[in-house]
TrEMBL record:
Source species taxonomy: Archaea, Methanobacteriati, Methanobacteriota, Stenosarchaea group, Halobacteria
Organism: Haloarcula argentinensis
Keyword Transmembrane helix in record: yes
Protein name, per record: DnaJ domain-containing protein
PANTHER family named in the record: DNAJ DOMAIN (PROKARYOTIC HEAT SHOCK PROTEIN)-RELATED, J DOMAIN-CONTAINING PROTEIN
Compositionally skewed regions (Basic and acidic residues) per UniProt: 82-92, 153-174
Keywords of this entry: Membrane, Transmembrane, Transmembrane helix
Chain spans, region Disordered: 68-186
Domain (J): residue spans on this chain: 134-186
Keyword Transmembrane helix: yes
TM annotation in the entry: 12-45
């Protein structure tokens, strides 16, 4: 989980407050014991969450409900049924380690897909979009213009040709967008 360290820190602080408030409640004022109880409960739930037991319990309930709903499918029930590939975490550390490795694999796969998609998008833009010379001409720029002047010219031109304005048209707007996409690295 992304905020494990933060949650652990807060749990430690709440645990410390529980101990201090319990001592104060026993020595000075028993009404403070109520606050100690609240901090103690908060500490327990944070521990329960960090240990992975909360997620396992939740998923077990979901699996049971899905199995019941699958059994009721013939009688009008619904549900996807149990997920065979999911395995509940055995302890918090192992679950986090396996999730982290799975997250890394997923991230690498996503990056590969994005890279391939970027290449395809660039090829489509190059094949179907205007040439760089046409793009500079549509934006009213010199071929040696830098990225900031391209962006500035694009914004001005879009304001003029946007379909929501009185003098704008959708065709011109799309042409300006295509010109900007041809000239930028984004």
């Amino acid at each position: 989980m992304q905020y494990d360290g933060l949650t652990k820190g807060i749990a430690v602080v709440f645990g410390g407050l529980t101990v201090v408030l319990t001592a104060v409640g026993l020595v000075i004022n028993p009404a403070v014991l109520f606050l100690a109880l609240m901090f103690g409960l908060s500490t327990y739930f944070m521990y329960y969450h960090l240990s992975g037991k909360m997620a396992a319990s939740l998923y077990e309930r979901v699996e049971r409900q899905a199995a019941q709903n699958t059994g009721n499918a013939r009688r009008g029930g619904f549900g996807a049924g149990p997920r065979e590939e999911w395995e509940p975490p055995r302890d918090g550390r192992r679950a986090r380690r396996s999730q982290a490795s799975q997250g890394g694999q997923r991230r690498r796969q996503r990056q590969r897909r994005q890279t391939a998609g970027d290449r395809q998008r660039r090829q489509r833009a190059q094949s179907s979009g205007p040439s760089p010379a046409e793009a500079y001409r549509r934006l009213g720029l010199d071929p040696d213009a830098d990225q900031s002047s391209i962006k500035r010219a694009y914004r001005e031109k879009v304001k003029e040709v946007h379909p929501d304005t009185d003098s704008g048209s959708e065709r011109e707007f799309k042409q300006v967008q295509a010109a900007y996409e041809t000239l930028t690295d984004d």
